[in-house]
User: Fold these one by one.
Assistant:
Number 1:
Amino acid sequence: MLVDDLLTRPEDGRQYEVVEGVLVRMAGSGELATTIAATIIVVLGAFVRSRALGRVTSSDGVYKFPGAETGLLPDVGFYGAALFPRITDRDKPIPFAPELAVEVASHAQDEDDMAAKARHYLAGGTRLVWVVWPHAHTVDVWRKGHGRAPAARLGSAVMFDGEDVVPGFVHPVADIFA
């Protein structure tokens, strides 16, 4: 399957990704996970837009990774303004990996599943991945070049940090779980 086919696939009420040419059905999310993702989109989006730093995308945004035929749909994605010229057709998948990918774990996803997905993002060029664990109220931070495990696990008492990917962005972790 080609990544471009994701946008023309007949609607069947399900969401899919393409991983190395294979169509993969994604698990749905409940109200908790979707509310957390929406909160992150609003907060991150307002920050990014007010500073003209780039674009924030929702779970409908298909990112086409370089090399293997892979298209992933993070719950929240970000890419910087410097990448705008690489988008030649806004009706096609975004032609690169997100610089920041946020995945909110659903009840059906475990640590091994989410670690594999985070590593897939990083291998494809993503620089920063946040894996949000709704029931534990924690966020795993994965960074490019850091290895096979999260660089940090953030609890509710600390702040998200956009690091050099979304410069200046800091936000209380606890807020996304409120």
Number 2:
Amino acid sequence: MDEISDYDFKEFVKTVQDLALRAYPNPGRADCPGSQVIHEVASLSRPAAHPVFQSHIVRCSPCIQDVLAERTRIQSQRKNRRRALLAIAAGVCLIALISLLLLRLHSGAPLRDEIARAVDVPEIPLDLRPYSPTRSASPEKNKPSLTLPSKRVRLKIYLALGSPEGIYEIQVLTNKLKALRSQQATAVVASDGTVSIPVDIDLAGLPTGTYVLALRPAHDNEEWQICRLVLKRAP
């Protein structure tokens, strides 16, 4: 037996529906229910369950047509209502966002700084591969200093080949080793074996001058990698 296609099935349903709309003529509309009952039947998820559908509508082509028309109108109304509710919800979210921004602005919160942080900050590479981990608390004097602007920066810190992945402790200290900035970030290994740590550090507010940058894997007894850091005035 040939398989019935979706098109053939839809055509069959349409034919049966057309026959139903013509098979039971009732030009005088004898015993037809009022518009309220037609609406009740059309509103049901299963209209055939309504007793009036069983007793009259199924045998009256004009009523069948009325139920189909009313059901189409109800479905269209529900779609429009859903669209309206979605539009209202979107408007409420927008008003809430604007209210929050205005509240922060009037409360003196650093709104401009928050917006600036949201935009893309240029990434600055820091190559620590010439430096080696050391148990000394002083940076290696024969190595060049690293230079950064005194502002919020996004760094990509390159570590020596073979450095472990995972979480690292990163600190910016004074020359007397007082911690001024301290945070953690994750080291990742690229396909070529390069090990790097992407991290954002807020250096704004620190005076220009010489500092110490220290980092190590966040495990007990791991050695610090220490180098001299010079902060310059931000452009």
Number 3:
Amino acid sequence: MLHTPPVAASPIHPLDNPVDLLFSVLENSETGVMVLDASDRAVYMNASARSLLESPLGLVPTWLADVLPTMRSGLDRSGQIVDRVTHEALTLRVRVRALPRPGIVLVELHVAHGTQAGREVAEQLSRSLGLTITDARLLAMLWQGLSNEEIAQQLSVRTGTIKSRLFRLYQRLGVKKRPAAVLRAAEVLAS
């Protein structure tokens, strides 16, 4: 009987530098991401945040910097705070989270669609994907980046109800997970 020595498995995609991978993921994320120091200066701002804030140099605009101290004060009571911030025609859902280092916070920026825009998005999804307006509205909220808890709050139902509705929505769309459903919505809305 021949005995062949085991061959060491080689990774398909070796990670020479995991930090580069993380940076690439953050930089290309559709969610605006900023890390701010104790004086609300941006230590890091990804491409989406620079684009949303129209800040190619990565500076926090005055209209956002004015509301950050109030949001930070809410962090004393909880680990995060979410609020809507409006500047001219732009409305953002801003989530501020405390990071383990004192004074450092993570800020996520999502474009918040108003009720009229949200209704138009839901109607377009309904027509294009053959969904009921209720399912299309739910899909629109996923596309906007809302969490299950946030959707439940907006619809005044329990989070478990949202999970059940999402399961049925995924079946109707022929997908298994949230990212695939959001991708379907993005394909419709991009055309």
Number 4:
Amino acid sequence: MAEKQLNLHTLQPAQERVDRKRVGRGLGSGKGRYSGRGIKGQKSRAGSHKMKPGFSGGQMPIYMRLGKLRGNTSKDAMPVGPFRTYTQPVNLRDLDRFDAGAEVTPESLVQVGLLKNTKIDVKLLGDGDVSKKLTVRVHAISASAREKIEAAGGTVELLREPKVKKELPKKRGPGSITAPVADEPEAEADAADVSDETAETTEPETTEE
């Protein structure tokens, strides 16, 4: 079969064109009178198809009726629970795979198979014992793990400085306002002046005979 010669009168679109359905053009068109929207109601109004996902007609949505995970949700309280954690825990007993004098880093933990990747910060916990001298470089470490590593002759270096918690200002109740206390030197000077005045007034009077 010979190929069609491409000319202006043989041009065709790659996909067949479909005409837009015209609504409101009489009852005989099939989309007249109510234009396929039914009679009255919210979805017959303009803008009714721009509702957010989960909208339930004004009643309590299902995502608000379902139960929530318990626990703190404040950023200051994180990490909390098994579902909300920002560190990958590694125990001391897992460091037996390293030789004495080795360097423990997130990259080396991936090489020995303790971690899958280095995307999450590593925290070393004190579960177990260590008898080898190791150089540990992790993001965080517990106090017991640090003591055990240093007792075995190893060293610990943190890859990220720990966050310092901000101290909240103490609340003062009503009536807790205290009067300003005068400085001690000024108070002593005032006391000296008063004593001089009292000494002058209490001198005995002498009478001429």
